[in-house]
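Second attempt. The first submission of L-serine dehydratase had a stray character pasted in from the spreadsheet, which I only caught after the job came back as garbage. Lesson logged: always re-copy from the clean sequence file. Corrected sequence (460 aa) follows.
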Amino acid sequence: MATTPITTSVFDLFKVGPGPSSSHTIGPMKAAFDFRQRIASLPADSQTQSDSIHVLLYGSLSATGKGHGTDRAVVAGLLGWQPETTDPTALLSLLRDPSVSYPISVGTQPIEVGPQHIHFERKRYDSPYANTMVLQLRAGEQVLQQEEYYSVGGGFIIRKGEPEVPADELSVPYPYSTMGELKAQLDKHNISLDELMLTNESALTGRSRAEINQRIDQILDFMHKAVRRGLRQKGTLPGSIKLTRKAPILFQQAKGMSHSSDSFLIFLNAYCLAASEENAAGGIVVTAPTSGASGVIPGLTFLAKHHFHYDKATLRSGMLAAAAIGFLVKHNASISGAEMGCMGEIGTASAMGAAFLTRCAQTNGPIGAIEAAAEIAIEHHLGMTCDPIGGYVQIPCIERNAMGAVKAYNAFLLATSGAASFQKISLDAVVKVMKATGRDMSTKYKETSEAGLALSATEC
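This time the job returned cleanly.
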């Protein structure tokens, strides 16, 4: 387990941006934007010499980048677009015509970038992370500036050689790196999970409590807008699979079964599919913790708001509990499908969803119930592969979000049945197993579309 304290902001975990993949869309867009900023500050003579920009994609970025829209995201970042403010329709239009190139400002001269400048490399690349991209500013064959970036899941990126922030510059009042340490802090200071999370968030971001609460409300609003859009949209999703949207059909079915015991699950399935289908279409979603898993938490929070009628304060508390679980998995294993398979994405989202439900239902409940719910959810996603057909975040990804939400709900029920204290496996233990499982899993099952369901593409 890692020993350095967790210093991730809630709003780095829950990020707004275009689908379909945080690792393949949001991360590369941020990396390309960073590269744009760096070449803009080069000496004038280097800028004048330059005549091309090349992008080399490795690992899963190469294997499934076409289906995930990585090439479009890179061009968008080079153009200066940012994930939260990107127009998804404009993003989908990029590179649609292979003969069109895009002028990227480098000093006083534009450099044209087109599909021929983005290279999906199949050879192995010596890199510490599965998703690696190298951006180069060239003069002929001479490389004037090169940066290497790693997209590590959830839209988080690391630049090679970037100095680590000194610990005293990123410190929190209540440091923890494991669930054991988190529980120890709560006991030692006799504070609630909400208090710990809010105090640490304020220290990291400088936001006041009111500003943090307002931003959580905004994040929930982005999530629920995605659900509502998905419930209205009909037709087929982009890509060669020609997958038909199901959310509107399920929603209408659920409304017609209001007196049936099954309607509750059908509503939940509809909400999760709605947000996931919006993600697959390249719409604006919230990483929770990734775009590929951006249907689980939105579906559960939409249900909690409109069916359980929880107020804003309760929903915020649930979101903070969900963030705490997401932090622990990201810090001690990974939320990246390219590293963990789908247990890193849907497994984590399900655990976060279980924590959310438990916290909402037990406002002043014990942290042990939240831990038990999260542990149960992860335990039953161990070994889940990431094998998207055609490289699209559609099959099995969309339905898998609904299944993850249902498992989250069941984990919540099991954890709050009065037997949470009987749980034999801790969250820290199952996250450790999760990391080992991801390490042992064949790369064919980690977002490369080289095995599993991905081989069914010819039947679709």
